[in-house]
TrEMBL record:
SUPFAM superfamilies tied to this protein: E set domains
Species, as recorded: Exaiptasia diaphana
Biological processes annotated in GO: sterol transport
The family this protein is said to belong to: Belongs to the NPC2 family.
SMART domains assigned to the protein according to its UniProt record, in alphabetical order: ML
Lineage, opening ranks: Eukaryota, Metazoa, Cnidaria, Anthozoa, Hexacorallia
Signal sequence bounds: 1-24
Protein name as annotated: MD-2-related lipid-recognition domain-containing protein
Length: 164
């Protein structure tokens, strides 16, 4: 009986992984904006059906940035911005790259790692097209990686309106 329950649980986890990967989109329309301590390999966003990704209010978005470290680092500081008409507007997010973003620090030179961020798209978020900019700096303030990706935010799944 316990074996059947374990098999069923394993199957459910496997299905969840496949469903999540099926909803994730490999983003090709991102820009590296100054990575020095890492090479960005891939950026996946879920859910995203087409680029630019359209984030609907009331949903949770997951972004996974895969990178290869070019240097050893023990910690990092995260910054994120909404870039609207060329103006960087800081976003309030936790700043410790090694806590809550899926990284296990330290990261070794040559190591491949995934930086994962989850964000609920709240109803009061402005409905706009923008660039999302993310940065991770090492303890000395040097840029590990930086990316910009175009996105849009719209009302819940029941409405597709965007304010410009």
């Amino acid at each position: 009986m316990a074996r059947d329950a374990l098999s069923l649980m394993s199957f459910a986890v496997l299905c969840a992984v496949f469903v999540n990967s099926a909803l994730a989109k490999n983003i090709t329309d991102y820009k590296d904006c100054g990575s020095k301590g890492a090479t960005i390999v891939r950026l996946d966003i879920s859910p995203c059906e087409e680029e630019p990704c359209n984030f609907k209010t009331g949903t949770t978005v997951t972004g996974t940035l895969t990178f290869v470290a070019k240097e050893y680092f023990t910690s990092g500081r995260v910054k994120a911005y909404a870039v609207i008409e060329g103006v960087d507007l800081p976003l309030p997010i936790p700043t410790d790259a090694c806590q809550g973003y899926g990284l296990t620090c330290p990261i070794n030179n040559g190591q491949t790692a995934n930086f994962v961020i989850k964000q609920e798209i709240q109803a009061d978020f402005p409905k706009v097209k923008l660039q999302l900019k993310g940065e991770v700096m090492d303890p000395q303030g040097n840029m590990l990686f930086c990316f910009e990706v175009p996105i849009q935010i719209s009302s819940s799944a029941n409405s597709d309106s965007i304010d410009y």
